[in-house]
Amino acid sequence: MFNAIMSGLSGLGSGFMNMHWSNPVMIVLGCVLLYLGIKKDVEPLLLVPIGFGAILVNIPLAGLMDDEGFLRTIYNMGISNELFPLLIFIGIGAMTDFGPLLENPKIFLLGAAGQFGIFLTIGLALFFGFAKLDAVAIGVIGACDGPTAIYVTAKYAPHLLGAVSVAAYSYMSLVPVIQPPIMRLLTTEKERVISMESSSQPASKTAKIVFPIVITIVGGFIAPKGLPLLGTIMLGNLMRESGAVGRLAKASENEIANVVTLFLGISIGATMSGPLFLKAQTLLILAFGFLAICLDTVCGVLFGKLMNVMSGGKINPLIGAAGISAYPMAARVVQKEGQKYNKFNFLLMHAVGANTGGQVGSVIAAAIMLSVLQGMGLIP
Amino acid sequence: MDNWTFGFTMIIVGMGGTLVVLSLFAVLMVLLKKIFPFKEEEAK
Predict the structure, then answer these.
(1) ipTM above 0.85, yes or no
(2) Could you list the mean pLDDT of each consecutive 10-residue stretch along chain A, which spans 380 residues?
(3) Which residue numbers of B have CB closer than 8 Å to A's CBs?
(4) More exposed terminus of chain B, fewer Cβ within 10 Å: N or C?
(5) Dist CA B25 CA A173 (whole Å)
(6) Structural domains counted in chain A
(7) Contact predicate A96/A252, CB 8 Å
(8) Of A108, A69, A20, A74, whose CA–CA distance to A265 is shortest?
(9) With contacts defined as CB-CB under 8 Å, which chain B residues touch A211?
(10) Range of the domain at A174
(11) In a domain? residue A6
(12) Within a domain: residue A117?
């Protein structure tokens, strides 16, 4: 009897007995993510479920990420097969207005320059000894686009998913802190005060409807490996612009996106098990992610300066910083910086154009990257 | 393939490819605007 009671009691507190030193550290890290999300409003929709997922998975013997565990079930349901990021992309497409971009198509080029940091970071990560596919996953943090980073990493470097996702979402929210010093460093005051004229050629409704169809077909044929990313964002945008399926567009940007964001966040948090996450490699990934976003901003602003010269001084180079994909935060940063130097300057619509170009740019950069990897025989 | 060759290829093809594809998209957008021009009635 006594032995039975003692045996029963020994099961209580077994979590403490089986704790690895990294588990409490990760629980504290999970609490920090919760604090950032709840108190500091840093990407709360993602950081709250990620932080809580990190706490759950670091409590020993609960088995949440075992074969039958509920976090493993969610992970298998939508992360390992890339479903969740793609569903999020439909919602992003439904929320995005490509009108400002269609009004001034040459701004699309800033969306390309804003992705250069991805490729430069891949080169640096390789230089520091990362394996090829790991370097690709680290570089894609520079896409400044959470779903793209998760899509690529979950598929080709799943062991880095926690670090890459946390870096991608944390740095995205830090864009207002990261970008302004770089923008000021690379531009002169004379450039920063340039006012840009509004486009005299708005896009017609038909052009806005045909745009996602044409981009999907052409982009898909050029880089087929990225078609899931491009196709889903364009499907969402087609639903928005057509006006024929308002209910689906609204569901995509609200109910579906909300449910998927919850599942996505908690299952990413579930990959942050202490023994797997707490490595020197994770710190390097966080550092490279930061560098990638800085390089994106540098390349975007420098390309903006080039366009300024080529246009005879009509383009404010600050809008180049909005070529990264952090939408619409990067566009707001440009507007704010522009108005600091010329309070009558309204760069917002031009910056939104560059920013939506950056969204498509990040998807195209990932698509090209995957197609190149396939061409080299590194992925099936 | 060694890391140097891989990295160099990714940088050149990746950056160049992204720029070329988005330039192509920009041209397509100009064409779309020409084929389906904005009409004043839409503004109303």
Answers:
(1) yes
(2) 79 83 94 93 88 94 90 91 92 93 91 94 93 94 88 91 87 87 95 84 91 96 92 96 95 95 91 89 91 94 95 93 88 92 89 93 93 89
(3) 1, 3-4, 6-11, 13-15, 17-19, 21-30, 32-33, 35-39, 42-43
(4) C
(5) 29
(6) 1
(7) no
(8) A74
(9) 29, 32
(10) 20-58+69-375
(11) no
(12) yes
